[in-house]
Amino acid sequence: MLLLDIRNLTLELETSQGLIRAVDRVSLSLREGEIRGLVGESGSGKSLIAKAIVGVLNQRWRIKADRFHWCGVDLLQLPFDQQRKIIGRDIAMIYQEPSKCLDPTALIAEQLHESIPNQLLKGGWWNRARQKRKKAIALLHKVGIKEHQSVLESYPYQLSEGVCQKVMIAMAIAKNPKLLIADEPTTALEASTQAQLFRLISSLNQLKGMSVLLISNELDSIARYTHRLSVLYCGQLVESGETARLLAQPFHPYTDALIKSVPEFQPDLAPKSQLYALPGSIPTLQHLPVGCRLGPRCPNARKECVHTPALERKQHHFYSCHFPLQYKEPQ
Amino acid sequence: MSRLLEVVSLSKHYRKQLGLFRQTTIQALNNVSFSLGAAQTLAVVGETGSGKSTLAKVLVGIEQPDEGEIRLAGQAVTLSHYRKYNHVIRYMFQDSERALNPSQKVGSMLDHVLRFSTVLDEPQRQQKVLQSLQQVGLMDEHIDFYPHMLSAGQQQRLALARALILDPKILILDEALTVLDPTLRAQIVNLLLELQQKNGLSYLLISKNLRLVRHISDHCLVMQHGQVVEAGDTEQLLNQPQHPHTRKLMGLS
């Protein structure tokens, strides 16, 4: 069954310059036990989508969707408190800058205890504190922190960024969520800690069957750990499909450019040779081009590109482009 | 023939006060030596706290070394003639958005650099500013822009223009490429490679992205706790890492 099923999600913001459509009809579906990658450059609306799923978007945003199902229940139709209840029970999120997202005035132990829901504890209220302490230590061990005592007794500023991120993950998995949303979990970390975290996330996925939505702006760092990928550009979904197939045969020129701009995916590229790069830069949200938003930068844009292409399907591979690469039109 | 930049047994430590009377010393750089030739790229890799940024700061003169010598084209460098040698080594910061003055227009920002370190007169400076904007792919109209009006990629280009305006021989890139989006990074990398081929610029690249290091650098230094644990030809070093620390950095990245 589909865990999360979003059809044509549109997020709009009303400003003095008019209505800005930051996310334009994005569809996203997640199966149980799947790691899904969401890739896009800064300002492409990745974090907005994540926030819309957890329901923490600012009041000013207008959320519209044809379908916004969580386990078969349409979240947008539900009254607010029920929506919060479901999201609070099933979805957990970890944020980009862990040391800034943790409470600087509280000990790690207090913050961890707070994130453990009472429903998961057995017995009466009198042994709750002891159980919580035990559970907090178990959680820290689970995310790979061995010196639990010193970590529990410290404030976030005393810990390194990597340890803070692990504590965040421990807090997120405290309630055994069905879906973990990781919003650029590794940008602040160094290479060796990054790999550790990704391995931790994928082991959580394998052992507990937890679905993960992994958000990143670099294709190369998450490609190895994801089953499926969705690529966003400027709030539009450009391509989605199984990771291996998408990397082997991209249909959209933007995905193609992303893959080609990473030296790692090009083993026969001579050192110091020019990388493939799209001209121009990402448009600002106030000055979005009409139709396909890649239009002005696209190497094979034509007249038709002023109309927004519909999402087309080829087996399990979705793309939205009028002139997909390596695809011959039927005669 | 002497190399463009030679660094001989450079050391630097910081004192940290731990109370009224106690203090500890942190050895940020410990006996670091390397050399860099013209039109070459040297990559410095290592974990946070391994002394990469201290090395860069010592080289541009933000910090003074305790021991050791920096030689530019065979000549020893001291802080006292900073004005003379800041033409040769320029520094590009990690976060260009925050490294640019938000209340200063692009033109005057570049002009200030020239006014501080050259003897050019007004029209000459103007010409130089336009020339350096063109060099990095910005337009003449951008002179009247404030930094916030530029996109992230353009800001990065502006930071590059500010570094290149004095026609340096060496450019230090302190994680300048890591924060960029992939397609923008490819653009900037192409620009840097082109400048290296055309003008014979040398780069000191400080990065944790080993894929990028492999692509653009000729030589590589691996640092740990302020010491160079492994150095050599990038291709060779990354294909056959000898030191366990290098292997740790590679195997997990």
TrEMBL record, chain A:
Topology in the lipid bilayer: Peripheral membrane protein
UniProt key word Lyase: no
Keywords: ATP-binding, Cell inner membrane, Cell membrane, Membrane, Nucleotide-binding, Transport
Domain ABC transporter positions: 4-259
Source organism of the structure: Alkalimonas cellulosilytica
Protein name as it appears in the record: ATP-binding cassette domain-containing protein
GO MF term list: ATP binding
InterPro entries reported for this sequence: AAA+_ATPase (IPR003593), ABC_Ni/Peptide_Import (IPR050388), ABC_transporter-like_ATP-bd (IPR003439), Oligopep_ABC_C (IPR013563), P-loop_NTPase (IPR027417)
Secretion signal span: none
Keyword Aminoacyl-tRNA synthetase: no
Family assignment from sequence similarity: Belongs to the ABC transporter superfamily.
Compartments it resides in: Cell inner membrane
Pfam families per the UniProt record, alphabetical: ABC_tran (PF00005), oligo_HPY (PF08352)
